[in-house]
Amino acid sequence: MRRVAQILVLAALLLAVLPAQARKKPQKFTHTTVQLPAVTPQIIPVETANTQLILQVDKQGTVRTLHYGAKAGEPDQFLRFRFGGNHNYEDPSAYPAAGGRFNGYDALHVEYADGSQNTELYFVNSDVHAHDDIISTVIHLKDYVTALEVDLVYNAHQAEDVILMHSIIRNAGKAQITLRNYASASLNLVSDDYLLTHFYGGWANEMQVDQELLTHDAKVLESRRGTQTTQDCNPSFLLTLGKSFSETSGEVVAGALAWSGNYRISFQIGQSDRLNIVSGINPFASAYPLAAGAEFETPEMIYTWSCEGAGGASRNLHRWARKYSVWNGGKVNPTLLNSWEGAYFSFTTETLLRMIDDAAAMGLEMFVLDDGWFGLEHPRNNDKAGLGDWEVNTNKIPEGIDYVASYAHSKGLKFGIWIESEMVNPDSNLAREHPDWIVQSPGRQIHESRNQWILDLSNPAVQDFVFGVFDRTVSLSPNIDYIKWDSNRRIMSFGSPYLGAEQDRFFVEYIQGYYNVCRRMREKYPQLIVQCCSAGGSRVDYGSMRWFNEVWPSDNSDAISRTRIQWATSLVYPPCIMAAHVSAVPNHQTGNVTSLKFRFDVASSGRLGMELQPKSLSAEERALADRCISSYKQYRDLVFSGDLYRLASPYDGDFYALMYVSQDKRRAVVFTYCLRYQNRSRGSHVFRLQGLDPSLKYKVTEQNVDRSCWWGNGKSFDADFLSQGGFNPSFSEASSSAVFVLEAE
Ligand code: GLA
C-alpha cells in the first residue's frame, strides 16, 4: 500500500514538472495513401538555337531534368527514358524539395504552420509563350498536402543559347509559412568527369581562378558577407564536362546567379555519378516568412552550354549580357582620367582644373572626381570622416561642383563624380541624427570597416536617403554625365532596427532595397553612365549589372595583376563592362614597375582610362599616351561589341593573348603580352588567331610603335595563315606587349 502511494506521489510530481507540451496526448498518425490526380506523361523541351533542356513528367507527376546540352533529336524520344539506378534515392528532380523521398541538397525547404517540413511537388500543368527572341516556359507545381505552389520559369534566349531559370513560390494557404530554403534553380548533368572552374579572391585580388575535378559528395560556393559578395568568391562558374579545360573545344556549361547578396551554389555528385547543381539565395540566417496569399520570386540563374569550350560559353554569355543584362551593354563608354590615384584626398579646384586640362590634351573624353569632395563639418580629408554628409566641401572647392563640371565640358570632356551613399562614418552628422539607420544587432558593438558603418537598406526610409544622395549629387550640375557608385564594406553585426523581431528578412530585403534604389535611379536617369564599384570588384554580378554601364573590377591597377583579373572576369562577364586604368609606377598596390606601353596595352583590352597625375609623365610618355589613346578610339568598338577569343591564358605560360572580332568578321584587334621573358629563343611565340573568316585576307598593323615586333607587320595574310601558325610576334623582355589591328581587304 505504501509503495502504491509512493508511485502516485511520484507520478503527480512528474506531471507537475513536465512541460504542458510533453503531456499532450500523443497525436495519432495515420498512414495516408494519397491518390494523386492522373497526369499524362509528357516531355517539356526548353530549347535555344543550339541547346536543349529536357524536362520529363511521369505519370505520378514527378518532373525530372533529363538532359541539358546539345540537341538530342526529337524531344518525345525521352518520354520513356529512365536513368539506371534507384529513383527513390536520388531522383534528378527539376526542383528538389526537402521531404518526401529526397535527401540531397534541396532547392526548396518549407516549414508549415503546424511545424511540418515535408514538401512533395507534383506537376499541375505548363504553359509556353514567346516574346521577341525569348521563349518562356512555365511549369506549375503543387504540393499535394499543403496549399504550396511553385512555378518553374525557363526563359530561353534563342540566338544566344542562354537559358534563365528561376522559381516563384506561392503560399496559397491560409496561414503563414517559412521558407527555409528557396533556390532559383536545380540542374542535373551527366558526364564521366566534371571540371569546375570558379573564382576566389580578396581585396585587390579579385577573380582568381581555381579549378578542380569534382569528386563525389558536395562542393559549395557561397557568400555570407551580405553585400560585397563577389570579393572572395563570385556567384558564377564554368563546368567542363570532361577532365581538361579548353578554350576551343569540349562541352562547357557556364552558370551565374543574378543576385548581389548572400548566395549558395552546391554541386553534388550522387550515387549514380550524376551531378546536381542547386543555386540561389543563401538561406543562411534567412528563413523567410511568406504570408498567406504571398509569393516569393527568386533571382535568375543564368545558364549557357557550348561545345566550343570555355570560349564558346563565354561568347554566349557576352552576347546575351550585352543585349539583355548590362545597362546600355555594348555601347562605347568614354575614356577618362580618374582623380583617385593621382590626387587621393588632397586636391583643390586648381588641382582638378589642371587634371582636366591634361586629360583634354591627351585626348581623353571624361574627368571623374573621385572620393574627397564632400563633408563640411566632418570634411572627407581621409577615410575617417564625412561619409553620410553629402554637401560639397567648399574649403576644397569654393566654386562648387558645377564650376568644375562646366570647366570639363568647356574643354570638351564629360564629367563624373564619386559617391558611396550606402555608408556612414561614425564621425558624421548622419550617424548622429539617424543611429537607427545603421545595420546593427541590439546591444552589440557595431564593427567598423574602413572606419565606416553600413546603412540598413531594408528600411524604406534609408532607401529614400540613398536614392536622395544619388539624386542630389546629379543635381549639383547639369553637366554631370557619370556617377561612380562605390560601396566599400561588407555587412558585420548583421541586423536591422527597422525589421524588429523579423530579422530573418534582413539579408534578402537589404538586397531588394538596393535594387529598389537602382530601379529608381534608372527610372529617373536612363542616360547617365553609372559605374558599379565596391572596393574594386566586390559587386561584379549579374544582379547589379542590369543597372550599371560598367564595373571597376579591382582596386589593383597593376597591369601584371590585371592580366589575371581581366582574363577571369571575361570568362563569365562581357568585356564591355571592364574599366581598366593606366596608373603610376611603382604601382600603388603592388610596387611593380612596368612600361607605360605595357600598362596601356593591358588597359586597352577593356574600357581604357587613366588614374594618375598626368603632370608626373615625361614629354615622351605624354606623346606615347596621346598615341595609345588615339589608336584605342579607332578599334574600341571591337572591345565593346566584338566577339572575344582568349588565345593564351596568363595562368599557363609566358604569354597572354586575346582578340576581339567584329560581328561581320572584317575587323579584329589582337592583344599579345609577354609576361615572363626566359631567353631569346623563347621570346617569339606562335599565337593561333581565332574567329576570323577563312575566306578573307587581313592586313595586320601593329599599333603605337615605330618598329614592329612582328616581321609581317603592315602586310596581308590569309585568315588560315594567321590562325594556323604564322602569327609569331617576338618579345625581348618581360612585361612587354604588342597590339595589332586586322582589317579585311
Ligand atoms: C574604393 C574604390 C576606389 C576609390 C576609393 C575611394 O576603394 O574602389 O577606386 O574610389 O574607394 O575612397
Walk me through the structure.
This protein is of the alpha+beta class. It has three domains: 42-325, Beta-galactosidase, Chain A, domain 5 (Distorted Sandwich); 336-552, Alpha-Beta Barrel (TIM Barrel); 648-744, Sandwich (Immunoglobulin-like), CATH 2.60.40. It is built from 14 helices and 35 strands. Strand 26, helix 10 (542-545) and strand 27 (550-551) form a beta-alpha-beta unit. Helix 8 packs parallel to helix 9 and helix 12 packs parallel to helix 13. It is globular. Residues 340, 370-371, 418, 486, 488, 533, 535-536, 552, 555 line the site of alpha-D-galactopyranose. Alpha-D-galactopyranose binds at residues 340, 370-371, 418, 486, 488, 533, 535-536, 552, 555.
Low-pLDDT ranges:
15-23
Terminal-residue CA separation: 115 Å
Strand content is 25-35%
What's the number of extended β-strand segments?
Answer: 35
CATH architecture assignment of the largest domain: Distorted Sandwich
Q: Main β-sheet: number of strands, strand sense, barrel status?
A: 10 strands, antiparallel
Mean pLDDT: 95
- Overall structural class, as computed from helix and strand content, comes to alpha+beta
CATH hierarchy, class of the largest domain: Mainly Beta
Give the total of domains.
3
Rg of Cα set = 29 Å
CATH overall fold name of the largest domain = Beta-galactosidase, Chain A, domain 5
